[in-house]
From TrEMBL:
PANTHER family: HAD SUPERFAMILY HYDROLASE-LIKE, TYPE 3, PHOSPHOSERINE PHOSPHATASE. GO terms for molecular function: magnesium ion binding; phosphatase activity. InterPro entries: HAD-like_sf, HAD-SF_hydro_IIB, HAD_sf. GO terms for cellular component: cytosol. It comes from the Bacteria. Keywords: Hydrolase. This is HAD superfamily hydrolase Cof. Pfam families: Hydrolase_3.
Length: 267
């Protein structure tokens, strides 16, 4: 039986992590101590990162339960090894790779499976499909990076992807000089994890605190949770949030808001 009264769910990049995409020492130490002092609060994260790129943070923070990667498509408890995920078909991958510019214009990319990351290094679709088959793993997501100057090509690629049925969820992230396209099952988003973890530990939405900064965090702000947008968050996210923090991710905004909220709460 769960004794949790609250759940804290944070995004990683741009939120719990600083602009260097790592945890500050202050945040790391605070979260570890916070869990010791507040056993009634379950702390977790929901990120767009694959598990291989989030595992170290899980261990640094000494988390105790499920987390979500790939924007909710990969829900995992490292302690029990229990995995809940949604896959993309090899039929879709073959369709994606049949578009000429998918590989020819690619700067870098990877297939994200339930076992490992498979770098997209070959401009031969058949080699990529064979690599996935040889890995004996299931396709969870795809990460593609293109030059910002290739926006026209990327737009055509996205239009091509959306013609597939069932179409996957397409997320676009902008970095200096680069466009990042992320593909995952359309069945799940970050709200899926909020719903899952709420049901799993028996905590009402009103006692769930969520933290984010980007458009893929918007689903985590809905349903009656107490959603926080850090000061560096996108305007669209701030419109959906319950609270707009005056602190950014580089100012340890998450832990400052936790300090404020739980100041008058007792176990």
């Amino acid at each position: 039986m769960s004794n949790y009264k609250y759940i804290v769910i944070s995004d990683l990049d741009g939120t719990l992590c600083n602009s260097r995409e790592i945890l500050s020492e202050q945040t790391k130490e605070y979260i570890v101590k916070f869990q010791e002092e507040h056993p009634e609060v379950l702390v977790t994260f929901c990120t767009g990162r694959p598990w291989a790129e989030a595992k170290d943070i899980y261990e640094q923070l000494q988390l105790k339960s499920y987390i979500a990667c790939l924007n909710g498509s990969y829900i995992y408890n490292p302690h029990t090894k229990h995995l809940i995920t949604s896959f993309l078909s090899t039929k879709f991958l073959s369709y994606l790779l049949s578009f000429p510019s998918t590989l020819s214009n690619l700067v870098k990319g990877a297939l994200i499976t339930d076992k490992l990351l498979l770098p997209l290094e070959s401009d031969l679709p058949k080699a990529t499909l064979q690599a996935l088959e040889k890995s004996e793993s299931n396709l969870v997501g795809v990460k593609l990076f293109y030059k910002e100057s290739d926006w026209g090509v990327v737009s055509e690629l996205i239009a091509w992807i959306k013609k597939f049925s069932p179409a996957p969820r397409v997320s676009i992230f902008f970095y200096p000089g680069l466009l990042n396209i992320e593909l995952q099952s359309s069945q799940l988003d970050k709200s899926s994890f909020v719903q899952f973890i709420s049901n799993y530990v028996g905590v009402e939405y009103k006692n769930i605190l969520t933290f984010g900064d980007n458009h893929n965090d918007i689903p985590m702000m809905k349903g009656g949770v107490r959603g926080y947008a850090l000061s560096n968050a996108l305007f669209l996210l701030k419109q959906e949030a319950s609270v707009i923090s005056k602190y950014s991710n580089d100012e340890d905004g998450v832990i400052k808001e936790l300090t404020s909220f739980f100041a008058d709460k007792t176990n």
